[in-house]
Amino acid sequence: MLEIQDLHVSYGAIKAVQGINLKVPDGKIVALIGTNGAGKSTTLRTICGLLRPEAGRILLDGDDITRLPPQDIVKRGISMVPEGRHVFPDLTVYENLMLGAYIRTNQKEVQEELEGVYGLFPRLQERRQQLAGTLSGGEQQMLALGRALMADPKMLLMDEPSLGLAPVLVQEIFALIERIHRQGKTLLLIEQNARAALTVADYAYVLETGRIAMEGTGTELLANDEVRRIYLGEVAD
Amino acid sequence: MQLSMFFQHLANAISLGSLYSLVAIGYTMVYGILRLINFAHGDLLMLAAYIVYYGRGMFHLPWVPSILLAILLTAAIGIIVERSAYRPLRDSPRTTILISAIGVSFLVENLGLVLFGGRPQPFPLPVFFDSGSAQEIGGVRIENVTFAIPVVTLVLLYVLLHIVHRTKTGMAMRAVAKDFDTARLMGIDVNRIVATTFAIGSALAAVGGIMWGMKFPQINPLMGMMPGMKCFIAAVFGGIGNIQGAVIGGFILGVAEIMIVAFLPSISGYRDAFAFVILIGTLLLRPTGLIGEKVAEKV
Questions:
Q1: Of the N and C termini of chain A, which has fewer Cβ atoms inside 10 Å?
Q2: How far apart, in Å, are the Cα atoms of A53 and each of A22, B112, B152, B182?
Q3: Count of CB atoms situated within 10 Å of the CB of A94
Q4: Domain boundary among A152, A172, A202
Q5: Under an 8 A CB cutoff, do B186 and A75 touch?
Q6: A113-140 burial, b if ≥16 CB within 10 A, otherwise e?
Q7: Contacts of B172 in chain A (CB under 8 A)
Q8: Is residue B242 assigned to a domain?
Q9: Which pLDDT value is given to residue B170?
Q10: Residue B27 located in a structural domain
C-alpha cells in the first residue's frame, strides 16, 4: 500500500500541494481528479521522486520513500506514465520499451515482458522499428503505458492518460487501464476526464487548490451533486 | 601543380580533418546531453599530451602504458570537471554554466603554465612515427603519423557509434540527451550517464591530444586553445549535438584549411581565421549546422 501523509510541495513561493493525505491500497484503482492547477501532477511527480516535498511523508508498504531519487522509486516497483507525449521521439518504439526495462537485468524475463506488452498493444509490435516521434498521439500514449509496464511495476502512476485523445481512443485507453488492473497492477490515476476516471476507480479524491476537498468511492462521487456540477458539467437535478 | 603534390596535400588534409573530427565529437556529446559548450574540452588535449610527455620523459614508462595512463587520467579529469564545475550549476541559467566552463578553461591553461612552464617542450615520438618514417605510395610520400591519425579516428568512431547505438548505456545517453526527467523515470541514474559522457568525450580528446603532439611535436600549455576553438566550430558547423555532424564538420574544416594553404598561398597566413569565417557563416545562414537537430528549447 502507498500512503501519503500531510504532503506539502512548493515551486518557489507557490504552494502547489498543501497538506494532502491519501491511500492507495494494493490491487485497487485510485483516482485523483481536479481542475488544472489543483496539484494533481505535482502530487504524482513528488511520489515518483522528480519533486522534493517541503514536508510530509510518502510510505510504500510502511517504508519511508519520501526523498528517494526516481531510480530507487522505480526499483521499488512504482512506475510513472508521464503526461502526454513524453516518449523518446528519436528512439525507436523498441528502444523506448527497452528503456522501460532499464532497471531489469534478467534478459529472459525482459523478453517475456516484451511479448506481453506486444500482446496488449499489437500496434506497438507492428511499429517496433519506427521512431517513436512518428507515432500518432494515441499510439504514443500506448507506448508510454507499455514502457512503464516493461519495468514490471507493482503500481502504475498515470498522469492524464486520456489528455488530448479522441473520444474513441479515450474509451480504448480506459479499457486497457481496466485490463492492466485485472492483471494485478495497482493504479493511481490522475485525470481531468472525471467521469471516465470515476467510472473505473475503486476510490477517488477530489483536489482543489492543493487540498483534498472530497473523497469517496467512485460510485459515491459520481452521485455527488457538487462533483456532478463542477467536474461532470451537469446541472444538478 | 603536379598530381602527386595534390595527393600529398589531400593526405594531410584527411589527416588533419579526422583529428578535428575526433575532438569535435567531445564537444557535441557534452552539448547533446547538457546543452553546454564545454570550453575546457580543448585544454584536455594539452593535459593528455603533457601526461605522455612526463610519463615518457620523467617516469620512463613504455609507450603503451603512458598512452593508456594519459587517456584514463584525462577521462578522470573530465569527470572531475563536470562534477565540480558543472553539476552544481545544472539548474542555473545556461549562461552561468557557460561562464563556469570558460573559467575552467582559464584555470587549466594557467595551471598548465605554472606546473609545466610556458616554454614549449619537444613531444617524444615513438620510432614508428619519427619524422623520417614515411611510406612512398605512387610518388606520394605519406608520413606514418599522417596515415595513422585517420585510421585511429575511424576505429574510435566505430567503437563510439557502437556504444551509442548498440548498448544499454548508449541508449540511456540518448534518452538523457532528450529528456532528463523522463529518463530518470526509467530508473536511469542521470548523473552517472552524464559522467560517462564526459569520460568518453575526454578520452577522445586525450587521443586527439596525443596524436596532435605526434603530428606537431612541440607542446605548450596553450596548445589546446586553437584546436579547441576550431573543433568547437567544427561541431557547430556540422550541427552541434549530433555525432555524425561533428565528424563531417571536423573533416570539412580540416580539408578546407589545408587546401586553402595549398592552393591559395597568398592568404595562407589567415588559415586560423578561416575557421571563424565558417563559424560566422554557419550562425548567419544555417544556425542548426549541416545536419543539426531542430532547434528546440529543452523544457
A1: C
A2: 15, 45, 50, 19
A3: 17
A4: A152
A5: no
A6: bbeebbebbebbbebeeebbeebeebbb
A7: 99, 102
A8: no
A9: 96
A10: yes
